[in-house]
Every structure is written in structure tokens, then in C-alpha cells.
Amino acid sequence: MSSSSITLGQHGPRMASVGYGAMSLTNFYGPCDEDQAHNVLTACVDLGIDHIDTSNVYGAGTSESRIGAFLAKQGSHAKDMFKIATKGGITTHPETGARCFNNALEHLEGELDKSLARLGVDCVELFYVHRREQERDIEDVTEGLASLIKKGKTKHIGFSEIAPDSLRRASKIHHIAAVQSEYSLSTRAPELGLVQACAELGTTLVAFSPVGRTFLTDTPMSYETGQSLAFTQKNPRFMQPQFAANIASTDKFRQYAADHGMAAATLAIAWLLHQGKHVLPIPGTRSVEHLAQAAAAMSVTLSADMLAEIEAILPVGWAAGDRYSTAQWIGPERFC
């Protein structure tokens, strides 16, 4: 059964059980200006969505800056409006300009300081290592993150795209409030250890791309649009013939959702909420209408029969193509 609220980690605040992924406040999935970004953030407030997930690299700081500008307009109401998570650790090599990862405390703290300035806050609710630097022991990285809590720059710490074993190692040093990973009806890999490890350790599993990068919505991205965007252009699931196969498979899911009187995105996120009380989906969108569809999942209860029927329509492994290309897989930890 789904719930309308969730606790962040073992000791964090109660938050709405659906958050918002603020990568969409940049041009990653298509053009988004500041007015549009602020309209979406206003809708978050109206819908009771209070967890906003961003990063220093989303639009090279644009996402954080737009959130900060929105908060600045709210005056005294801004302080308790959102529980913000941001990330650091992805950077570029100073000589080659190639994308790389730096988990050194000096780098992470410096990037967090810049994020705090863009957001216009003194402290964030949650600070993640965005990608793990394999050459650096995760125990040492965790100790560094814990020092940022002591300095009052973040209340909780987390990691993005790490394996269950890495989570267990880090958790021996300090409680990890959240691990972020792609998780949806189209990406089920977290069920092979990460969902279980998070439940065991009291860690919130923050599920990004919960509607399968639009495949699990009523208006999936067209092939032409996908080919116009840098990420999807080279993503195996958005290349032919995989793209056509994925549309055909999810057509049945869209019809099932319509037969039950709800948007496909609502049903997809409701399914995630039924996978564990510690699972927090963070859909991203530039559309207020689509955000409302996501929020509606908080009031949906799926019967055992419906869950079984959804599994029959989209069984484990249905998606055609890997979730990342070879280049996109650099950084996330594979564990199965």
C-alpha cells in the first residue's frame, strides 16, 4: 500500500512520498526558461511536493540557480518550503576537459559551497556524492561527508548510483540517509540487492526516472525528439529498432492505466510506491499537468490483482536496449 509521506533515512524529516527531480529545470530534456521553472516549483508547493532534487552539474548550476531565485521571491516562507538535495563529485579533467569524478573532501566541500550560494541557503537537507571515484575508498569519502554535517552545511548524506556492497561499507562509517538510483517498471536492476540493502539499513531509495524517461507516460517522447537530445540520441532504448519495440510494449500499459481511470505516469509511480515504504520516486517534468499526474500517485492504492496484472503487461526484462550506452555507463556501479 502506498503512503503520502516518507521519512528520509532513519532520522530525517517526513516528506511527501513523491519528490521532484529538478534536472528538468534545465534544457536537458528540452527548452525550459526561468518562468517555466518557477511555474513548476509553484505547482510543487500547491501539490504538497516538498523534496526537490538537484545537482551542481544540472545545466552547469542552472537548476540550482533557478531554485534559488524562486526561493528568494518567497521571503520568510522560503525557509521551510522545500527539503533540498543536491550533489557533487562530477567534474572535468583540468588538462583534457574530459568528464571525470572527484570525491576528495576539498572538492566536494567547495562544490557544496557553490551550490549553497546558488540556492541561497546555508544548509541543504541532503548532499550526495553524484558519482563514486573508484580510486578513493568509500570509507574515507563517507568520513568527509560526515564532516560536512558537523559543519552545518548538510543535514544528511547520500550516494548516487552505487552498489549494495558499497552502501554497506559506507554505512559502517556513518548512516547513509539516501541512495539514488534509476528505478521503474522499465529498470528493475535495483531489485537485485539495492532495494533490499536500503530497507535493511534504513536508507531511502530515491528512484530517478520513475516513468522510464517518458516511456511509461501517455505522451512518450517521439523518436525524432529523442534524436534531437544529446542524452537520448545515443541511449540504446531510444535507438531503432529498440525504440519502436519499447513503444509497442508500453502501449498496453497506457491502455491498462486508461482502463483504470488514471494517467500512465500516475500508475507507474504508484507501482513504485508499492515496492517499499523506503522508496521515494522523483519524477522530473517541465509540465505542471504532468507534475499533477505524478503527485496523484500518492493517493492510489493498488490491489494485489492489479500489481500482478501490471507485472504481466510489463514483466521483468521487457525493455529493449540497455538503460545506458557504453559512455553513459562510466560512473554508475554495476552489481548484477
Explain what the structure shows:
The chain has 336 residues and is α/β, with parallel strands linked by helices. The protein has a domain at 5-212 and 272-287: TIM Barrel (Alpha-Beta Barrel), CATH 3.20.20.100. The chain has helices spanning 34-47, 62-73, 105-119, 138-150, 164-171, 194-201, 223-228, 230-233, 242-259, 264-273, 288-295, 304-313, and strands at 5-7, 14-16, 20-21, 51-53, 83-88, 90-92, 99-101, 124-129, 154-160, 178-182, 204-208, 279-281. The strands form 3 sheets. Strands 3-4-5-8-9-10-11-12 form an 8-stranded parallel sheet. It has a two-stranded antiparallel sheet with strand order 1-2. Strands 6-7 form a two-stranded antiparallel ribbon. It is globular, with a radius of gyration of 19 Å. The relative contact order is 0.15. The model has no long low-confidence stretch (mean pLDDT 95).
Short description:
With 336 residues, the protein is of the alpha/beta class.
Ordered list of secondary-structure elements with their pairings:
Layout: E1 5-7, E2 14-16, E3 20-21, H1 34-47, E4 51-53, H2 62-73, E5 83-88, E6 90-92, E7 99-101, H3 105-119, E8 124-129, H4 138-150, E9 154-160, H5 164-171, E10 178-182, H6 194-201, E11 204-208, H7 223-228, H8 230-233, H9 242-259, H10 264-273, E12 279-281, H11 288-295, H12 304-313
Parallel strand pairs: 3-4, 4-5, 5-8, 8-9, 9-10, 10-11, 11-12
Antiparallel strand pairs: 1-2, 6-7
Helix pairs in contact: 1-11, 2-3, 4-5, 5-6, 10-11
